[in-house]
Amino acid sequence: MTLGFVDLDRKPLKDLALARLVRPSEKIFKQQLHLVNNYSELREDRGAEILAQVNGGGAFFSSIIGLTAHRHKYTLELLDLAMSLATHVEMRFKHAFACQRPVELSPQIQPMIPTPGHASWPSGHATEAYLTCALLQSLLPHGTKYREQLERLAARIAVNRTVAGLHYPVDSAVGRLLGTALSDFMVARCSGGKLHERGFDGRKFHGQKDTVIDFDPRISMADNQSGYYELSSGSASVAISPLLHFMWTKAAAEWKPIK
Q: Are residues 108 and 220 in contact, defined by beta-carbon separation less than 8 angstroms?
C-alpha cells in the first residue's frame, strides 16, 4: 500500500507518494512470537508505565521539553492535529493489511492489558510516538538538543507495546518509519519544503538466512542499507497550507525566549 497526497489547489492534479509499506510474511510474524514472549519478563518493571501510555505518551514527552498547557496551547493544538492525521492513516493501513495480533497466534503471549480489536501492523503507538518525536525536533528552536531523549522515549513507548504483548517488534519498526514520514509531511505543509518518499518492506525484516531480528531504533532509515527501510533519492515540493502555517507560526512563537 502507498500513502499519497493530492494538492487540490494545484492543477493538473498530481499524486505525491509519501510512504510505501509492504506487509511482512506470516513466517516473520510467527518467528517474532518468541521475542514477544521474552519481552513479557519486563512487565513487572514497566507495568505502571505501560498503563499510563495506553492512550498515548503525551505526558512523557512533556516532561522532556517542559510542555505545559498554559504556555503552549498552540503547540498542543498542533500535536492534536498531527495525532488526528496519524490515527486516520494508521487505521487505514491496519484494516487493509489485517495482520493478526500476537495473542491470536499463540496462547503463550497472554497480554497484560486488553488487546485492541483492530489489526496489529503497523503499531499506532509507535507511529504516533515517532511523529511527535520528529515534529517537536522541527518545531523547537533548539530541537536537536532534545533529539536523543525524544528518540529514546519514542522507542520506549513502541517497545512497551511489545512488552504488554500487543505488538511484534516489526510493528514498531514500521511505526517508526510511518511516524517519521507523517512528520515530514506535516512540517512541509506547515512551513514548506521538499519530501522524499519513504518505504518499509516487511518481507525483508530478517537477518541472514532468515533469522529473526528485533526492533533496533539505531538502524538508519536514510542510507538504504538495512534492507527494509527505504528512502527515495527523488524529491517533490509540497505547498504550504495557510491554516497549518498559521498554527505552526503560533506554536513556534511559544518557544522563543522571553526577554
A: no
Confidence (pLDDT) at 73: 96
Task: Tell me the β-bridge partners of 200.
Answer: 21, 229
CA-closest candidate to residue 22, choices 205, 216, 221: 205
DSSP codes of every residue in 86-132: HHHHHHHHHHHH-PPPHHHH-TT---SSPPPSS--SS-HHHHHHHHH
Q: Is 56 left (phi over 0), alpha (psi -120 to 50) or beta?
A: left
Predicted confidence band at 259 (pLDDT cuts at 50, 70, 90)?
low
Could you tell me the pTM of the whole model? Answer: 0.95
| DSSP annotation string for 54-70 | TT-SHHHHHHHHT--TT
- Domains located in the chain, CATH noted: 15-253 (1.20.144)
Q: Are 206 and 228 a contacting pair, CB within 8 Å?
A: no
